[in-house]
Amino acid sequence: MEDLSITTLALLVLTPLLVWRVYNRIKARMVRQRSIVSRHYTGVLVFGAMILVPLVQLFDRPVNMAALLAGAAFGTGWSMWALKHTRFEDTEQGYFFTPPARLGILMAMILVARILYLGVEIYANQGKGIPVPRLTDEPLTMLCVGLTSGYFAWYSMALLQWRRKLRKAIDLE
Predict the structure, then answer these.
(1) SS3 category, 38
(2) Confidence label for 160 from pLDDT (cuts 50, 70 and 90)
(3) What pTM was estimated for this model as a whole?
(4) What is the DSSP secondary-structure string of 83-114?
């Protein structure tokens, strides 16, 4: 067995700390928050692009493309379920919503865990002549990307529709 280098030991010690910090950052975002239309548009664009950009690269790999699309479909389904459990508020201070925290954290951490795994794989294969994997090389990675992106893209789109519906109600008065 190879001796562990100081860099490997440092990574082993710091990885749980990194995961904990990411988890806490995501958890802090899954609370009651003000509905800001520009953030919802950003969510639709960023997470939509996270589906469309790999999709364009996957036409020659149907299994990976199917994994991405299946993930996006399941993420969209979970998002529809989450929206039924979201608390929407129209107050004098503005518009607020409270997402179901556990599901949002889970969806985000699935992608974080997969990216962390890829980072560990790249680090472990350093100097072995193995090519660095691309994000689109593994069906499981595409499933995770699709799941997370589908969830947050659909959720952002639904928040935009909610705000548009409120705007129409105001205009009718």
Answers:
(1) helix
(2) very high
(3) 0.88
(4) HHTPEEEEETTEEEEE--HHHHHHHHHHHHHH
